[in-house]
Amino acid sequence: MKVLKFGGTSVGSEEAIRQVAKIVQSQVEQVVLVTSAVGGVTDQLVQIGEVAASGNRVYISHFETVKVQHEQLYYNLIENKPDDKFYKIIEEFEDICKGIFLLRELTSRSSDYILSIGERLSSLIISEFFQYEGIDITLFDSRQYIVTDDHFGHANVNFKETTKRIIDAKSGFTKVSLFPGFIASTSDNQTTTLGRGGSDYTAAILAGVLEADHFEVWTDVDGLMTADPRMVKRANFIEHVSYEEALELSHFGAKVIYPPSIQPALEKGIPMTIKNTFKPEQKGTLITKEWDDTKQLIRGISSIKDITLVTLSGSGMVGIPKFSYRFFRALSSAKVNVILITQASSEHSISVGIDAKDDKVALKALNEEFGELIENHSIDPILVEKNLSIIALVGNNMRDQVGVSGQMFNVLGKNGVSIKAISQGSSERNISAVISRDDLSKALNVLHESFFLYSTKRINLFIIGTGNVGKAFINQLVKQFTFLKKNHQLNIKIIGMANSRKMIFEEDGTPLSKWESTLANGAKFDKKDFMRHMYDMNLRNSIFIDITASEDVAALYPEILKKSISVVTPNKIAATGPQADYLNLKSMSKKYGSRFLFETNVCAGLPVLSTLNDLVRSGDQVHQIEAVLSGTLV
Ligand code: ADP
Ligand code: ASP
Ligand code: MG
After folding, report:
1. What are phi and psi of 223, to 5 degrees?
2. Is the CB of 154 under 6 A from ligand 2?
3. Whether the CB of 42 sits within 6 Å of ligand 2
4. Ligand 1 contacts CB of residue 36 (under 6 A)
5. Which of 14, 105, 428, 598 is the most exposed place for a label (fewest CB within 10 A)?
6. Are 185 and 243 in contact, with CB atoms under 8 Å apart?
7. Would the pLDDT of 400 be above 80?
8. pTM of the prediction?
9. Ligand 1 contacts CB of residue 254 (under 6 A)
10. Which of 399, 391, 427 is nearest to 298 (CA)?
11. CA of 217 to the centre of ligand 1 (A)
12. How many A from CA of 573 to the centre of ligand 1?
């Protein structure tokens, strides 16, 4: 027996559901099928609940949208008007919305009830369509089989009762047995959900209990990738991975599988595959118990986008063991899930990373627990830092390797990503860092570039000034582009470009051969806008190239270097002004890991500065400079 789970995008349209039918029909064995709500519907249901609870009648039109969307899907697939079973669910849906609207209250219980509508509708449509296609299918209401506690929104499964009920259901299985994912119920039949993304979990529970031969998760990507492909365009496909690594990757946000979903399959050692519904011929990622690929140091890089760091600190904490106990007890009683923990060795502080949506509850719980100690200044007020992300390197082989964290922090530092907290799991399968959310995309890309073998390294240029020198420089780039790529593995991209009249930005790089006409059609140049755009893009390996002779542009260098963007320039103003300003630039460049290079300032680009630097580095001392010949002077 096989368990097949299809996610939201896999059942997101008429075509997708037809594709699912094809995949199911091609199976020789008996199939247990688990399906999600139609893609995007759970989000819409969340919104409807919130809008209705706020007393806004607009909820009615949102409700209609969801209803019509499903009616249409039903009609397109089954070529008939939806039946009574369908409208019974719609009626319940309408009633619960009305109730929430009238009471102006959305409890976690009613929220779960509303959310369950998505999976109930999709599974009904799929089962009726499969029947219509002549597939031998039986629809089971998962709420009668998956039993949980009443922790609405994220209920915990009662495995004993659930196992019993699933085993009992087995006698009614047909060639295909369909269970809607995500939904469950308490022992007194209150509808619950297993947490967002929980359809994977439903499927894994079934696979575990039924001791399936294989567990397949069908989604919209080719498999598990070395990083979220939406954030890292060059993420690589992972062919084979161990359960432990997959677990670490998914814990840290690789949304493709929901973290606990691996557990039931892992316990029974059931091999698992992640496959692309729209490219079933692709192999997918295989996840098995034993898999140690010694070639790969890092298996993947994952992240959690929106977290809050909560810190308890103060001299009153030193050496008193109960502090951390009370800290974690308070968070746990408030049902706050702790994602990451760090403690300074001086014991002056403990910080935890939590889901951003829990920050108010966490702060309230901690203030209640420690209010008195904060008031009498034994400990500091609880510090809450928002808009942060966690980035994590995951890999089995990291534990035997020195220098991985060194490389990680070095690369992040060089790109101006500052690190708020660090944590390394005791398994050493994971090193995580808390960083600003604004830096997430840059950090993911730069780490990916550093830990996975790339044939090239991308360099992002921002060029100001397209006069004679500027033109010559860009034309030289155009000529050398292939050479630099082939011989120096550098992939040069012009991301921003400006002259005194126009400016352009192109996140994927301006086509080099057409730069002049593209720039001529750009937006009106504004120095402030140009800078803001460059900072906001926050790209890795960025270089600002000033090919103007402008004092105003030169005055921006300290600020640019501070953003960890290197400055390269033939503009002599900055390097020939007051010595203190020049020294400030050098120290900025050192502090922020950015480079300030101005070779062409001396002798019109003859290699004088680099030669001098080499001499000084090898121990020579400069005693006297007789003359500095600049291009302008000669
Ligand atoms: P489904 O609706 O099928 O459950 P999800 O949206 O929950 O699909 O998960 C699939 C998505 O996970 C992909 O579209 C991809 O953008 C995202 N994702 C995040 N991290 C990874 C990763 N490391 N590998 C593959 N996909 C990832
Ligand atoms: N439909 C639910 C969600 O969007 C469960 C799932 O898709 O796994 O979170
Ligand atoms: Mg999912």
Report:
1. 155, -160
2. no
3. yes
4. yes
5. 105
6. no
7. no
8. 0.80
9. yes
10. 399
11. 11
12. 50
Q: Is residue 37 helix, strand or coil?
A: coil
CA nearest to 295, candidates 490, 451, 125, 109: 451
DSSP per-residue string spanning 431-457? EEEEEEGGGHHHHHHHHHHHHS--S-E
* Coil/strand/helix, residue 397: helix
For the ranges 238-242, 311-315, 383-387, 393-397, the one whose mean pLDDT is highest: 383-387
Determine whether the shortest distance from the Cβ of 260 to ligand 2 is under 6 A. no
**Which of 4, 217, 228, 444 for a ligand 1 pocket mutation test, highest count of atoms within 8 Å of Cβ?**
228
The token duo for 69 is: 């969307």
Backbone angles phi, psi at 496, to 5 degrees: -130, 145
* Model confidence pLDDT, tens digit, residues 223-275: 999 999 988 988 989 999 988 888 888 877 767 888 778 888 888 889 999 99
- The closest ligand to the CA of 284 turns out to be 1
Ligand 1 nearest-atom number relative to CA 227: 23
Indicate the helix (H) or strand (E) that contains 159: helix 159-169
Evaluate if residue 280 carries a pLDDT over 70: yes
* Beta carbons within 10 angstroms of residue 244's beta carbon: 20
Mutate to test the pocket of ligand 2, among 42, 200, 201, 277 (most ligand atoms within 8 A of CB): 42
Whole-number Cα distances in Å, 138 to 119, 358, 493? 16, 40, 55
The encoded tokens of residue 277 equal: 């519904």
Ligand 3 ion: Cβ-proximal residues, 5 Å cutoff: 7, 197
Residues ≥6 apart with Cβ < 8 Å to 326: 369, 370
The tokens describing 275, both together, are 């496959």
Which residue is listed with tokens 């029909």? 25
- The C-alpha atoms of residue 338 and residue 181 are separated, in whole angstroms, by 26
- According to DSSP, the residues that pair with 33 across neighbouring strands are 4, 178
Q: Closest Cα to atom 10, ligand 1: which residue?
A: 256
Residues 541, 459: contact at Cβ < 8 Å?
Answer: yes
How far apart are alpha carbons 266 and 291 in whole angstroms? 13
